[in-house]
Amino acid sequence: xxxxxxxxxxCKRFGAIVVADDVEFELARGECLGVIGxxxxxxxxxxxxxxxxxxxxxxxxxxxxxxxxxxxxxxxxRMGVGRAFQIPQPFTHLSVYENALVAASYGAGxxxxxxxxxxxxxxxxxxxxxxxxxLAGALPLIDRKRLEFAKALASKPRLILLDEIAAGLTxxxxxxxxxxxxxxxxxxxxxxxxxxxxxxxxxxDRILVLNxxxxxxxxxxxxxxxSAVVRxxxxxxxxxxxx
Amino acid sequence: xxxxxxxVLCAAVLVAAxxxxxxxxxxxxLRLATECLLLLTMAQMWNLLAGYAGLVSLGHQVxxxxxxxxxxxxxxxxxxxxxxxxxxxPLVSAIVAxxxxxxxxxxxxxxxxxxxxxxxxxxxxxxxxxSFAGGTAGLPLATSKLIxxxxxxxxxxxxxxxxxxxxxxxxYRLMISSFGLGLMSVRDNDLAAMSVGVDVRHNRFxxxxxxxxxxxxxxxxxxxxxxYIAPLAAFDVNWSVYMxxxxxxxxxGTLEGPILGVIIFFGLREIMTxxxxxxxxxxxxxxxxxxxxxxxxxxxGIWPVLRDRIGVRLLDVHRTPPCPAAAMALNELSGRxxx
Lengths: 243, 339
What we know:
The structure holds 2 protein chains of 2 kinds. Chain A has 2 domains: 1-80 and 157-243, P-loop containing nucleotide triphosphate hydrolases (Rossmann fold, 3-Layer(aba) Sandwich), CATH 3.40.50.300; 91-156, no CATH class. Helix content of chain A is 36%, strand content 25%. Chain A contains 9 helices and 10 strands. The longest helix of chain A has 14 residues, at 112-125. Chain B has one domain. Chain B contains 16 helices and 2 strands. Chain B has helices at 2-24, 27-53, 61-78, 82-85, 88-104, 109-129, 152-176, 178-188, 190-195, 200-226, 231-234, 238-250, 257-273, 280-297, 302-310, 324-333; strands spanning 139-140, 228-229. Chain A binds chain B through residues 51, 53, 72-74, 77-78, 82-83, 85, 89-95, 97-98, 101-103, 105-109, 111, 113, 115-117, 119-121, 123, 125, 129, 132-133, 151-152, 154-155, 183-184, 186-187, and chain B through 178, 181-182, 184-185, 187-189, 191-201, 253, 318-322, 324, 327, 330-331, 337-339.
């Protein structure tokens, strides 16, 4: 089957700092790819490259058979790339409902009743229905994280990029968020950066490990988490057990 | 919708008041009212750009001047009554904006503001050196003899009133449209806006061109009222300063803010120079102090604070969610949603 997303030979450097070094992977609809790696490994940069906030030096990003690496961010969003930022980026002076409506109107290209009904549908799915009329700037962290996800979902994406969406939340909040992500997984391809191993294991089909912008490992969650390479990167242990 | 009825009623009352004002007010007061209305229009245009597209221009005087000069020169060449030439003013300013947007939009934040100012200064200096535009001496309104002087002040007032009401009405319509929703999303967070499919650059371009056109028309009317234009007055950076002052103390990114701002602006001027008998210089000091105090106490301007305090929304551009019960029923009709 043709993958929904195919990234190949992706390179990006800022001066001496390499944020993406020949990164390649594929992702099918209904699949979730977890991405881990130490700080500065190029995880968020990988998402920035896919959404178009940063343009790649080389390499290709193909979404559903269409090369998107030369398109500006708004075009990629309209083609079905949705992203939840690590630091929530709400439209602070608009209501929660209007936040979703922006994504439904522009990203999904809906108009009138179709746009408003779809926005409410998304808010219902993300548990924000009761707060639809609240100003987005007045929301607590968990709801801002939910709204980040809701905005991404309201743009009717084919590919959803989640950047540490569970970070900073309490354990029960993480569980609720994981449950919400689980409900949309079947219809979307998801790339999820997260530092919380059990949350990532619960949803991911594969995990990709980045270090210095390079893909060092990719495989099933259990295998990757137990691998010597990951332990070396995270705990500074050499593969042979010598620090 | 009841709010809609209220708005229509308010508009009707305003139109009636504007239509009747020249028969009630004396000429001096009418001139002041015209000045207020024109500056309000310019402030709304500056607000469209700064408050909704996030571009702070310090060079908006260039659009005021282009509008006014295009009116004076076209009226002179074609020997027409200036009123019939008015449409040229917004057109010329809009074209200028569309052309300079190409280099200027490569700059962000303060660089854009300064580049706008520099551009205005350059055009101002060129105008002073251009004999066909009257040089430093300026131009009289060549066909002023064609203006009916008995009705001149009332007509100027009516034109200014029509422009102001039309501008506010059009901005209101714009803001409740989906393009307006896009503009407001850019105002709040351009990064998030482009990430959900809003073409931020296109939105900024449209706001820039519309803003220039409105300022051009208001500028043309302003100098038409004077029957005379000179480069120092037309390219005065104070045009931008006044627009900025009115928008910032009133409430940036709201339609009501500039209305409140213009009332404060002229109220302060009339009180300080009238009953208090202070010179014009003191009035500028007063304005500056007020602006600093407002910015420190209410960074988003007076209107948002007032609105939340009294709970009144005049030109409410918020969208309300569809009734939950109706949405639920609709959902059941259309079958269950996946997931």
